[in-house]
Amino acid sequence: MEYNQGCLFTALLMGVVLMYNLLRRANEWIYVRCLGAMKNTLPPGDLGWPLIGNMFSFFRAFKFGDPDSFISSFTNRYGQAPMYRALLFGKPSIIVTTAETCRKVLTDDDRFGPGWPKSVSDLVGKRGLHGVSNQEHKRLRQLIAAPVASREALSLFIGYIEDIAKTSFDKWEKMDKPIEFLTEMRKTAFKVMMNIIMGNEINDEKSLDYMEHEYTLLSNGLKSMAINLPGFAYYQALKARKSLVKKFGAIVYKRRMMYKGEELRTKKDLLTLMMEIQDDEGNKLSDEEIVDLIIIFLLAGHESSGHAVTWAIIFLQENPHILQKAKEEQADIMKSRSSSNIGLNFSEIRRMKYLQKVIEETLRLVNLSFALFREAKTDVNINGYTIPKGWRVLPWIRNVHFDPENYKNPMDFNPSRWDDKKIKLGTLIPFGAGSRLCPGADLAKLEISIFLHYFLLNYRLERINPGNKVQYLPITRPADKCLARIKKL
Fold this sequence. Notes:
The structure is a single chain. By secondary structure, this protein is of the alpha+beta class. The chain has a domain at 119-372 and 436-467: CATH 1.10.630.10. The chain contains 18 helices and 12 strands.
């Protein structure tokens, strides 16, 4: 009897081991065996479990406060390599980990195209910048370059941003209880972008709060699994997008009907500029393209600017010597200002050299996006490894920004590291690189600079929970959303 029980237990154990090995190899059989001899030159790694791939390991690393353990798990098992294979967001992928290899991927439009997950392409729109072909992306960039990134446009936006920054800090300073500073900054960054894009088309607080809430739902769905069922982030995000498309579509239609010719040109906002611009053949942006671009611009402004200002202030407060140096620069700019100049101008912002280093160091250290997404358009050989056609390619921003080969003591907040002319081109990629570099990068930095200018001159931050733990999904943030008081100096 005992002998039979022992045999049964052994058989069950062997069955469990066999099943485990079969499941662990299933994705390799599905996606790798069909590659023939090419499989011998694939990067090291594994494709994880059936259906979920390596997503469990990804979420575990990012949800439990150690996001870099995801890549280190590959390094520990397969050794140091410029890339690894995995299955992420439902597709076999190549994770690119070094600055040089990332640069090759991001600047090679002939062999790599957009590769965003379904959740992203569905939520930001098929006519926006994320999902279109390289040729169409080039056309859109050429059309929106002047309205978004030219000196004339940026100078026009300074007044919008400045007024909102001063009003917001003044309001927060008068609060009689602590505020979630990150939450307030996100709302304020959203308000800034709404003003830049649409002027005073929507200016009541109730409407702005509702739309900002919809954008929060949309943002939460971008880094989720594309499961369109109630209770899942993607389901809520799709509903939010539908609501936003309806709202913005109505505004674009109303603007076209209300303003004609000279009357349209009297409005100095981004929406008007996008309606007027045309390519070399005389073609203008369609309403669908404009709506998708509005959604992307607002999403980027809502996320990157609000979070970057919050983190920059946190880092400055934690490093008094850096804070003092940044303050002195802003004070010097004010001292040299002409008595006839009552507000910031583009030339003054260009003089904020040290502040720009603070911003760059904040973007490097925080990593508002952990990776970028491309797809191989053909079989590609890089550094002796083959990337198969149709596989997703992920330049892993975190790894580039924290590589000690690129930055000495990479976890330290040190704006002065940017004095070093030896820092290699392509080792800072918070807004991407190549032809798909974010067209709103300069606008985002302008907004961040203006908010930090007024903070440094007039306010300080008193955190309620200094040292509060950090959460990394859907975006890097303090767990308490930076609960704090704003105090006037």
